[in-house]
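Thread: quick sanity check before group meeting

JM: Hey all, I'm pulling together slides for Thursday and realized we never actually wrote out the predicted structure for the chain we discussed last week. Dropping the sequence here so it's in one place. If anyone has concerns about the input, flag it before I start.
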Amino acid sequence: MQHMSRTLPRMGPQFKQNSLRNVKQTWACFCSGRCGIVTYLLPAECVATMPMTMLSTTRFLQGPPSPLVATLPCPPASPFDLYTRMASAQRPSFLFESGNGRATTGRYSFFASDPYQTLSGKADQYLQQPAHGHEESGQAPFRHLARLVGNSRITRPVDVPPFFGGAVGYFSYDLVRQFERLPSAALDDLATPDLEFAFFDLVAALDHEQDCLMLMFCPPLERFLGEPREKLFREGRDRLAALEARLSSPACTEADTDTRGSLAFSPEQQRSSYIDRVHRCQDYIAAGDIYQANLSHRFTVTGDAFPSQSGLQPDLLAYSRLRTLNPSPFSGLLRFDHTSLISSSPERLVRLNGRRADTRPIAGTRPRGANAADDLRLEGELRSNEKECAEHIMLVDLERNDLGRVCDFGSVRVDELMTLERYSHVSHLVSHIGGTLRSNATGFDLLRALFPGGTITGVPKIRCMEIIEELEPVRRGPYTGSMGYLSWSGDLDFNILIRTLVRRSGTGYLQVGAGIVADSDPAREYEETIHKAQAFLSAFA
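JM (edit): ok, ran it. Output follows.
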């Protein structure tokens, strides 16, 4: 009985009859370094010193459908370190490092692997693939995604993070074609899905405010309604123990994730071509078609650091370098079979927490200075620049109007206006806008109202998207789309996919853009896009 403290605690009297030898161990690893659940006792030196401190047993077994939650002290490891211990090389996984302890940008980091099903959609067709079972196909992928999430509504307990199970994935920029009629001129050379999501019933969250790690098991509602609660509890108990054991395994060494290799960044537009497109955009502004538009261009990324096939290690390498050099509040790594998104996005598209919706647009950029005095000079120039301030106010008004389409009348407020935020290579003007979602509106109505973000299209939005389709030579794909989660509770949080490397079948793509107005200097706008890409160029130099 001396090892009883190593068994799952607080399981209740119904489990006391279990033989100690048959009880699955927690927070343990094999001496050889392999992770997993063990059915025998390990030597003390092989067992970590961080047992589960709380398991929400009673609430899961006796109440309405609710996640089974194990709460542990925060381990001495970063979210990225923990993610590397549990990510599968063969199955989709994600890491969202959005937590920085600030209420405006989020207090949690989330990560998970091995979803129980995936959903991808292109144009009007979707493909739903369970991990075990038969594929299903159909039409209207966005509506089908809304139906899958909406049919599994589970109330979020007050002491649980906003994402405790549900769907994680991305919307490509071209998803907007399912909402609006747009011309088709640019080449769709990457052929990425318009949406791609993985459904997770086992999720880990680091709470940076409370300094704890929460492991959560929450199957979809149909399983709560169709299976005995005790059966689900036993499954959840075992899977939480397995996840805890995986997270206690030895951390990857620097050699595991930082095997250096060369990369080449090749612009797909010449400087003169981009400047010519800026002039053509300004012709539309002069004609009164639009007030402002965002024009982008793309780099191709190749080299021996990116093998010709997709793989976990190149993604870990890329994200490890990026997060170190350019940490951002909405960064993350999202992996599917053929597409990986490696993002250091500074911008939120939209968040829904209960009935409270908010967005955080960025408009206005200057490079960082050589020293503190130079930073202050450049930031003062940014704040006093009439063009930058006018562009920012115009986009704040656009986001207010988009929120107003689905929020209660009079509830939309600008909580922050033109706050200055510093990043590794640039400084930005940022605002924060919030409102109360109408009682008859859903999170998917909110997404449809705001997608894609106005800061990466322009004003007015639809006409700008028509001009973007004409002037940009290739479809944007995931660039300026959104990556985030859809929780069983109805909560959601999505970034805007800028400062994001897209890996598609072994090749990387980085796209950057700038906001164009009537008095823009085309050469300076081109230089702004280079400054925005500099974090990536430096990370892989």
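AS: nice. The first strand starts at residue 54 and ends at 55. The two ends are 56 Å apart (CA to CA).
JM: adding both to the slides.
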